[in-house]
Amino acid sequence: MKELAVINPxxxxxxxxxxxxxxxxxxxxxxxxxxxxxxxxxxxRNYYKLPGGGLEGTESKFxxxxxxxxxxxxxxxxxxxxxxxxxxxxxxxxxxQISYCYLAKVKGEKGIPSFMGDEIADGFMPVxxxxxxxxxxxxxxxATTFEGSAxxxxxxxxxxxxxxxxx
Length: 167
Description:
The protein has helices at 14-17, 61-73, 117-121, 131-140, 146-163; strands at residues 3-7, 22-31, 37-42, 47-49, 52-54, 76-90, 95-107, 124-129. It is an alpha/beta fold. A hairpin with a 4-residue loop joins strand 6 and strand 7. Helix 4 (131-140) packs antiparallel against helix 5.
């Protein structure tokens, strides 16, 4: 998969990152039958993000992505192709995260998300926006956490911009 960016706002050195664990995550630009893009509004942290998250146990990227989309946007998805990957050096957690992003479409009907503790506390809410509206929502995000402003919003902005080639 093509690497689209490296995000390193805390200026972690190569010597530091060599010792850090690697967390893999799968994310998607999910489009419904009306051409609307799924975003998660993290209302209590004032930003938007793409659906997806960390892989659990021995999950493949596709298995993890399908699970995350069911949990976060209440949808079964069909993965259409690769968008790219982004490496994040998260010094605040002494962690390297590699996010793999895919283009996907909703399969069947939209359901109801099943958020967990932190997602509920952070006010997660799925929204479906036109591509232009989704780009605008990310651009206008003013995340109240460093993780959101320095990592999540920039990462998902790159993924959504790259997805335009396929939409």
